[in-house]
Amino acid sequence: MGSADIASSQSRVSAPDLRVNLANRQQALDAIATRAEAGQGYTLFTANLDHLVKLGADRRFREAYHRADLVTADGWPIVWRMKQDGHDLQRTTGADLLEPVCRQAAEQGLPVYFVGPGAESQALALETLSQRLPGLKIAGREAPRFADRLSDEAADEMAARIAATGARLCIVSLGAPKQELLADMLHTRCPGIGFLCFGAALDFVSGHAARAPVWMQRSGLEWGWRLASSPQRMAARYARCAVWFVALALPSLFPAAPRLIWIAQTARDSLGV
Question: Does the structure show a pLDDT above 50 at 44?
Fold first, then answer.
């Protein structure tokens, strides 16, 4: 893709396109370390098919994604479609990144702040991580409860609390789109902190949620595990995702379907407009 094409894609904020600039877990860890050394803040999102659905329906979510600095390919349909387009990507989820990021932070001496999930799950997960990673510096924690999006005043207060701890990273585990919207708001207020949206990663560590067996993850069947675990909550979501997957799989039949765009990552690149 040429620079003119990238510029054109970045100007289409109203379109539900999804852009990725991290190809695998190691590239994500390298980007996080590079930005930490430079004192640069950022937002990191892990894109999946449900996010693609939400991009088409939620303007604020779409704008937060277009301002994101770092985006990995989380869902296997995203990885599969981009491989069809000739890009060598590996699935990289928040659950895959959580412990390596915390280990890297411990090695670099970077304090980490945690936002979400629930208070009980958070406490158990952080106790487990502290046992596994004795050098991990937990700068602070909170488990906020809010319906959709924090008010500007509440975001100001949360940002001040996080900044006061000296945290360099903040792991946000509230689920989409809530966590991405919050990370985007906090990043504008704390430009020197990295905000990483890791979804259910802490719930997996605490045992409050069970991740699919490895063979299901590797074969692209993790969605089946989640559907079987919570059919009432997941059935409607996966029905919507299925429609968008068909559109991605057959782009010639769906010319208005969203595009998946690969942008090569460098230390100073972002996906923002």
Answer: yes
With beta carbons less than 8 A apart as the criterion, state whether 38 and 63 touch: no
Please provide residue 22's backbone torsions phi and psi, each rounded to the nearest 5 degrees: -125, 125
**Eight-class DSSP state of 105:** H
Q: DSSP assignment of 174-186, as one string?
A: S-TTHHHHHHHHH
Position with higher pLDDT, 152 vs 234: 152
**What is the reported pLDDT for 111?**
98
232-251 burial: b if 16+ Cβ within 10 Å, else e: eebeebbebbeebbebbeeb
For residue 164 the two structure tokens come to 């006061």
Every domain of the chain and the residues it spans: 19-144+154-262
Inform me whether the pLDDT recorded for 264 exceeds 70: yes
Integer Cα distance of 212 and 218 in angstroms: 10
pLDDT at 10: 39
> What pTM value is reported for the model?
0.87
- DSSP class of 212: P
For 16, what's the count of Cα atoms within 13 Å in the CB-facing half-sphere? 21
* DSSP sequence for 223-259: HHHHHHHSHHHHHHHHHHHHHHHHHHH-TTT-TTS--
* Predicted pLDDT at 46: 97
CA distances from 76 to 211, 217, 235 (A): 15, 9, 18
In the chain, alpha helices (H): 3-11, 25-38, 49-57, 59-67, 76-84, 94-108, 119-132, 152-164, 178-189, 201-206, 214-218, 222-229, 231-249
